[in-house]
């Protein structure tokens, strides 16, 4: 499975979503949503939660999550920086919801979500006030628990390092030296938080790039193998076939 760090620049985004399917990722913003109709599945760090009509869902900063199985979806999705809400900033930074989905949220909460997505011209301060009201309604129902002792900034640093260096002959020792972390700490962090090893993640990044190049360029398989960071064509072919299910040459021909 692919994970990535989403570097969001906007302080506040208000969206109406008709399809919640989204691959596994994490970001420094809080994600808050309401389901007007339809169903979907929210996955948070190994746990799955069904989303259905009148459910509120909340994902705190730097928590790995994804959405899938959207069906007839109509949902409001608010993505915002913790810095916008001083009253809740420490909560967002230090806790996570043990119950990220709250069922049967009708009444004021539903009305506020509806106004937020139905009135795009609302001033920013008005949007903030409405979101603050929603947070006041739902926070006690989220059953907040203390964040574990794995610093999220470590995960972000590791992923950003991998994303920038995967095309080089990089190892976990290189990451440890660059990030000033121990090799064992990086390995533990990736295994416990991402369920993947360092080398597996690097190879997945390389294969993603290789597949894109096979589809969009005329470069030879050999050139693509070395360009994406593999130390030999034999290794490239072996890993590609194991992960993609066919050789690079066959993959290109099918495209």
From TrEMBL:
It comes from the Bacteria. One of its GO terms (molecular function) is DNA-binding transcription factor activity. Residues 156-254 form the HTH araC/xylS-type domain. PROSITE patterns: HTH_ARAC_FAMILY_2. The keyword Cell membrane does not apply. Keywords: DNA-binding, Transcription, Transcription regulation. The keyword Lipid biosynthesis does not apply. Signal peptide: none annotated. This is Helix-turn-helix domain-containing protein.
């Amino acid at each position: 499975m692919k994970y990535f760090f989403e570097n969001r620049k906007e302080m506040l985004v208000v969206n109406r979503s008709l399809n919640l399917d989204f691959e596994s990722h994490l970001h420094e913003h809080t994600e808050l949503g309401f389901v007007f109709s339809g169903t979907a599945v929210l996955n948070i760090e190994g746990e799955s939660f069904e989303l259905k009509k009148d459910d509120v869902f909340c994902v705190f900063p730097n928590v790995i999550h994804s959405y899938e199985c959207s069906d007839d979806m109509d949902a409001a999705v608010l993505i915002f920086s913790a810095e916008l809400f001083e009253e809740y900033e420490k909560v967002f930074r230090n806790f996570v919801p043990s119950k990220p989905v709250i069922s049967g949220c009708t009444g004021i909460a539903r009305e506020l979500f509806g106004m937020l997505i139905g009135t795009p011209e609302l001033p920013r301060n008005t949007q903030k006030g409405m979101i603050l009201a929603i947070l006041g309604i739902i926070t006690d129902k989220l059953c907040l628990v203390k964040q574990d002792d794995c610093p999220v900034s470590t995960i972000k640093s590791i992923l950003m390092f991998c994303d920038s260096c995967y095309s080089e002959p990089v190892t976990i020792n290189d990451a440890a030296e660059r990030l000033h972390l121990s090799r064992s700490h990086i390995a533990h962090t990736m295994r416990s938080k991402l369920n993947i090893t360092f080398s597996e993640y690097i190879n997945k990044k390389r294969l993603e790039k290789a597949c894109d190049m096979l589809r969009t360029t005329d470069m030879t398989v050999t050139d693509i193998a070395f360009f994406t960071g593999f130390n030999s064509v034999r290794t490239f072919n072996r890993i590609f076939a194991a992960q993609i299910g066919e050789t690079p040459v066959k993959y290109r021909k099918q495209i």
